[in-house]
Task: inverse folding
């Protein structure tokens, strides 16, 4: 079985008595350790797809398997549990808790993992150090630059040993130099730790860091190609 596999996923919304097919039969398989970019015009279903593979939302119908677990059909609590164990999120808006230190932000998902407080802290400190944030552990997000906040979000996924990292426009709020730093970091992490990365981007230069590009159009996969990136 593949690491991540969707089979004929549909997400259908009722809008003013009309059906909107946000996803219209999406079948995608991704192996452990892949680095995949999702592209496509606004409204093509990228966010909906990410929300479902990130266990934030359920499909209307279709199957979804993540790391051997059948996700479609789970209830809210089960979904939350899988999400906490399996998925790290790096979003455009950084989605860190605002009045909470970098350290606490990184520790948060580990609260669900039966780790001792000491082990949680050790893992979080190690991850922050690896991402060049030593000395910033007690800083709140507002005291950190955009690039630093993004690195805290990456540290959070790492410390929790999430096998899947989802990134939705992770460089959307960053300048070019910082975007390159973050992308180099994600690429290095993918090679070194084998974490599977799925990233949404509008920018070809960002997608070029991935090894495979899946293009969405009208809720369907339009194309799925290797990039040639090593
Ligand atoms: P993208 O991320 O590619 O911009 P989305 O997944 O956000 O696309 O949206 C796909 C389609 O589904 C769009 O037509 C959007 O308007 C619609 N859609 C997404 N979420 C909802 C929702 N909660 N209610 C109704 N329609 C939605
Ligand atoms: P992105 O910047 O990722 O493309 P969008 O603007 O497409 O984000 O959508 C942001 C969020 O709003 C999505 O998670 C989606 O579920 C929701 N959304 C998008 N379109 C609609 C809609 N027509 N009605 C309700 N919610 C929507």
Result:
């Amino acid at each position: 079985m593949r690491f991540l596999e969707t089979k004929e996923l549909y997400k259908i919304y009722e809008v003013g008595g009309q059906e909107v097919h946000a996803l219209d039969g999406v079948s995608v398989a991704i192996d452990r350790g892949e680095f995949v970019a999702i592209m496509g015009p606004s409204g093509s279903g990228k966010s909906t797809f990410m929300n479902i593979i990130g266990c934030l939302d359920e499909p209307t119908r279709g199957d979804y398997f993540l790391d051997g677990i059948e996700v479609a059909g789970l209830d809210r609590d089960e979904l939350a549990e899988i999400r906490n164990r399996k998925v790290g999120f790096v979003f455009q808006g950084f989605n860190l808790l605002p009045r909470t230190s970098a350290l606490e932000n990184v520790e948060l998902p580990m609260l669900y993992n039966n780790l001792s407080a000491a082990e949680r802290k050790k893992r979080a400190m190690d991850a922050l150090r690896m991402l060049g944030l030593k000395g910033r552990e007690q800083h709140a997000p507002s005291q950190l630059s955009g690039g630093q906040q993004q690195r805290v979000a990456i540290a959070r996924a790492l410390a929790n040993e999430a096998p899947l990292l989802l990134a939705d426009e992770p460089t959307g709020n960053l300048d070019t130099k910082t975007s390159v730093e973050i992308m180099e970091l994600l690429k290095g992490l993918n090679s070194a730790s084998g974490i599977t990365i799925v990233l949404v981007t509008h920018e070809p230069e960002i997608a070029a860091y991935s090894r495979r590009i899946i293009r969405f159009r009208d809720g369907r996969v339009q194309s799925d190609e290797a990039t040639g990136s090593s």
In short: Residues 13, 15, 20, 22, 40, 42-48 surround adenosine-5'-diphosphate (ligand 1) (CB under 6 Å).
